[in-house]
Specification:
CATH class of chain A: Alpha Beta
Number of domains of chain B: 1
CATH architecture of chain A: 3-Layer(aba) Sandwich
Distance between the termini of chain A: 30 Å
CATH topology of chain B: MetI-like fold
Number of helices of chain A: 12
Helix content of chain B: over 70%
CATH architecture of chain B: Orthogonal Bundle
Oligomer: heterodimer
Order of helices and strands of chain A: EEEHEEHEHHHHHEHEHEEHHHEE
Strand content of chain B: under 5%
Number of domains of chain A: 1
Number of strands of chain B: 0
Helix content of chain A: 25-40%
Number of strands of chain A: 12
CATH superfamily of chain A: P-loop containing nucleotide triphosphate hydrolases
Largest sheet of chain B: none
Structural class of chain A: alpha/beta
Strand order of the largest sheet of chain A: 6-7-8-3-9-10-12-11
CATH superfamily of chain B: MetI-like
Order of helices and strands of chain B: HHHHHHHHHHHHH
């Protein structure tokens, strides 16, 4: 299978009040054509930073301090801003979490779609815009085209964001929690839509989420992140069936199950660690239920164990 | 969107009054030759200093010119000076404010320190000085007022830009591969346009006042071209025997500035989402 994107030892940090906060540490991933990879983790684990780094879109406090990102045969780190503009929205599309704030409130939908088609040299006729709206299953394209974002529902707006993201026929689609701001029934529809588009357009997907419940529907591989690093990575089916890392197990047990009657949700004790002062040894050890002595003393490496990559001394 | 704004505007009585005043004044300015009853430049010296009458609605001045006609033509001058001066200020202030807010850093520092320097000068004396060196003509007045009144607007636009550029859709626009120029002028500008409109409209009133003051001091529009300011100047010499020479141009200035201010404040309320 051909590798389309490979990330090697990527490290990204934020510098806030002269303190260095490493949000992503030594992350390596590789994606084959038509893969769909889910990046899962709690808020603040660096998953969105990873997504933004791929397009060099970090806010000005942030910077990529190490590693390489190879897209096709190009090293993204070496590209100029001008060349990046070709990649962003052209070869790699991105969908953000909140579709209301991600659309310009004072521009009609048609203008926002036309704009992206024009700068990436695509056909920007009205028929093509209608076709895109049809691709994301929006009815009545004429009404939608002439609306402003606030006149549409959350689900419709997210469909428009997706239409914009796929407008220039990208190879990779990064979806950064695209369903978090939506209610559950709409979530389901949006997931179905993304699945359909991946199939039809032969897209490679990077799906960033904190919701383990939807991962199995959309991805064939999972990378679980904790405190800026990958702790477990492997095939979706295997990780969901037999999670090995205590963190992955804890996340999975935190999903409520309809068929099991229990009084309370399972939660993970403790909170996300302060990235500026991480514990020694395994970064998860303060919250880990299966902690042993070595976890505090030594730092576990991400190693191939059976059918997956795992960063744990005592799985 | 526009419909909501229009409804909100129409509910605001004072703003409607302001708009009405301005529409009337604009019509007067456009149709001056039809409205005026006499030649505004040439008078009949035998009819000098006549009080208001049926022939001369607002009386005559010291050279026997019809004050009403002079004021009608003066409307043209005042309105065009106000609008063009503000036009210059808006273009300059908006552009520099956008650059300052979007790029930040050195560019921001240079522009904002320049604004600080400009604000250190008493503007009116700066204008007086510049006009004293150039020749006092209506065009110089417009340009100089424009070049000295963009600073507040630049600060305003900078502040708005700073907040808009942090919003998600700007990140999204970058994520879609848009160029800076397009992000600034197509995505940020329309989102900061309402305070610009309000400041611009309020600025017209201020510019008209500045022009009148300059003309009053003899450094603005030069006689015999009529302007409200220079009618007032000749009025002050005859205030004991010809009150109409001072009163009417004074009132005209007052009403015009009031009109622009009412409209400006009305628009500010219209654009303010907290006022429904």
């Amino acid at each position: 299978m051909e590798t389309i994107l490979s990330i090697e030892n990527l490290t990204a940090e934020y510098i806030v009040r002269q303190k260095v906060i490493p949000a992503v540490r030594n992350v390596s991933l590789s994606l084959n054509k038509s893969d769909s990879l889910a990046i899962v983790g709690e808020s603040g684990c660096g998953k969105s930073t990873l997504g933004l780094s791929l397009l060099k879109l970090l806010p000005k406090e942030g910077k990529i301090s190490g590693g390489r990102i190879i897209f096709r045969d190009q090293d993204i780190m070496q590209l100029s801003e001008k060349e990046m503009q070709q990649i962003r929205g052209g070869k790699i599309g991105i969908v953000f979490q909140d579709p209301l704030s991600s659309l310009n409130p004072v521009m009609k939908v048609s203008e926002q779609i036309r704009e992206i088609l024009r700068i990436h040299n695509q056909d920007f006729s009205e028929e093509h815009i209608d076709k895109l709206l049809d691709d994301v299953q929006l009815d009545n394209p004429k009404r939608i085209r002439n609306s402003y974002p606030h006149q549409l529902s959350g689900g419709m707006r997210q469909r428009i964001m997706i239409a914009i993201a796929i407008a220039s026929k990208p190879e990779i689609l990064i979806a950064d929690e695209p369903t978090t701001a939506l209610d559950v029934t709409i979530q389901k529809e949006i997931l179905e839509l993304i699945k359909k588009l991946i199939r039809e357009l032969n897209l490679t997907l990077i799906f960033i989420t904190h919701n383990f419940g939807i991962v199995s529907e959309i991805s064939n591989r999972i990378a679980v992140m904790y405190a800026g690093e990958i702790v477990e990575e492997g095939k979706t089916s295997e990780i969901i069936r037999t999670p090995k890392h205590p963190y992955t197990k804890a996340l999975l047990s935190a999903i409520s199950k309809l068929h099991k009657k229990s009084e309370r949700f399972n939660t993970i004790p403790g909170g996300v660690p302060d990235l500026a002062s991480l514990p020694d040894g395994c970064k998860f050890n303060p919250r880990c239920q299966k902690k042993i002595d070595i976890c505090v003393k030594e730092y576990p490496q991400l190693e191939q164990k059976e059918n997956r990559l795992l960063r744990c001394f005592n799985p | 969107m526009l419909k909501i704004y229009l409804e909100k505007f129409l509910r605001n009585k004072l703003a409607k009054v302001g708009l009405l005043i301005i529409i009337v004044l604009i019509l007067v300015a456009i149709f001056s030759p039809l409205i005026s009853t006499h030649n505004p430049i040439e008078g009949n010296i035998l009819e000098r200093l006549q009080s208001p009458s049926r022939n001369h609605f607002l009386g005559t001045d010291e050279l026997g010119r019809d004050v009403f006609s002079r004021m009608v033509y003066g409307t043209r001058i005042s309105m065009s000076v106000g609008v063009i001066a503000v036009g210059i200020a808006v273009v300059l202030g908006t552009f520099l404010g956008l650059m300052s807010g979007y790029f930040g850093g050195k560019i921001d520092n240079v522009i904002m320190r320049f604004v600080d320097i400009m604000l250190c000068f008493p503007t009116f004396f700066l204008i007086l000085m510049v006009i004293a060196f150039l020749e006092p003509s209506i065009y110089n007045v417009m340009i100089v007022i424009g070049l000295t009144s963009w600073t507040g607007l630049a600060r305003l636009v900078r502040g708005e830009t700073l907040s808009v550029k942090e919003r998600d859709f700007i990140v999204a626009a970058k994520g879609l591969g848009l160029r800076k120029r397009r992000i600034i002028f197509v995505h940020i500008l329309p989102n900061v346009i309402s305070p610009i409109i309000v400041a611009g409209v309020l600025g017209v009133g201020a510019a008209i006042l500045t022009e009148s003051s300059l003309s009053f001091l003899g450094l603005g529009v030069q006689p015999p071209t009529p302007s409200w300011g220079n009618i007032l100047t000749s009025g002050k010499d005859y205030i004991h025997i010809a009150w109409w020479l001072s009163l009417f141009p004074g009132l005209a200035i007052l009403i015009t500035v009031l009109g622009w201010n009412l409209l400006g404040e009305g628009l500010r309320d219209v654009f303010d989402p907290r006022i429904s």
